[in-house]
Amino acid sequence: MMLRGRLCEKANQIRKDLIEIAVRNGAGHIAPSLSCVDVLVALYYRIMRLSNYPQWEERDRLIFSKAHGCYGLYAVLADIGYIKRNDWERFYKGSFLSGCLERCVESGLEASCGSLGHGLPIAVGVAFGAKLQNKTYRVYCIVGDGEMQEGSNWEAIQFAVKHKLDNLTVIIDHNTLQAMDFLKNVLTLEERKNDLRRKMKAFGFEVKTCNGHNIKNIVSVIEKWINDQNNLCAPQVLVANTIKGYGLKCMENIPKFHFRIPTEDELGMGNRYE
């Protein structure tokens, strides 16, 4: 377990690694990968129960549903030794790591995702299975806010509440962008303040919001849920308010960078990790 003070340093290291490898290898989904780096660092270096053996039966599970933004996950798994460094450095250039997640449990990749709306139903099934087997591991699921328009997610949410899956924590990467436009221009009623929080609460989840780039806040919220486990009777959701492209000033909150590699001049506009 990493001390809180070092988590920000680790997040900056992961951002730098992610950007350098993705730009060098010509991989486009950099912006959606950057918005959830802090959440991933909080989970893997502080919160989740893991071992040096990725297939340890009692490990906590992460289902990474917003799989187009998986580069941060690859960088973290390479850093902790689940993915070989050479495979990560050859990402998009011949290694088994692709632009969307393919299941490879021996490398820490718990589920194939990419067609949005699949990861949360999988996570609910895994959490339900743990309950049936009296297992104590917890299940985490990172979803995108645009992905929350998928009907399959809301079916899974109802199931999770019905079966009181208090071993499930959902984290919504709420960067207010989906693909090439803002949520409010596509479908989500973003003019309604805290729309996602209100919906999840109405369905019966325990709900909190936080700054998704403040690792201390992320850790505090989730660790409080873990410590209050005996008093919880519902799944939890953390709405993490983030910035798409966070870390590269040229792409922060800019829709066109959803699948676009920055130029040298754009990279020269500055970053947040040095």
Mean pLDDT: 93
Write the H/E string, N to C: HHHEHHHEHEEEHEHEH
Count of individual domains:
1
The CATH class designation is: Alpha Beta
Number of strands: 7
Kindly describe this structure.
The chain has 274 residues and is α/β, with parallel strands linked by helices. The chain has a single domain (4-267), classed as Thiamin diphosphate (ThDP)-binding fold, Pyr/PP domains (Rossmann fold, 3-Layer(aba) Sandwich). The protein has ten helices and seven strands. It has helices spanning 4-25, 30-34, 37-47, 71-79, 85-89, 119-132, 151-162, 195-203, 215-227, 264-267, and strands spanning 61-64, 139-144, 168-174, 177-178, 181-182, 206-211, 236-241. The strands form two sheets. Strands 1-2-3-7-6 form a five-stranded parallel β-sheet, with helices on both faces. Strands 4-5 form a two-stranded antiparallel ribbon. Helix 1 packs across helix 4. The longest helix is centred in the first third of the chain and has 22 residues, at 4-25.
Question: In terms of topology, how is this protein built?
Answer:
Elements (H helix, E strand, L loop, with lengths): L3 H22 L4 H5 L2 H11 L13 E4 L6 H9 L5 H5 L29 H14 L6 E6 L6 H12 L5 E7 L2 E2 L2 E2 L12 H9 L2 E6 L3 H13 L8 E6 L22 H4 L7
Parallel strand pairs: 1-2, 2-3, 3-7, 6-7
Antiparallel strand pairs: 4-5
Helix pairs in contact: 1-3, 1-4, 3-9, 6-7
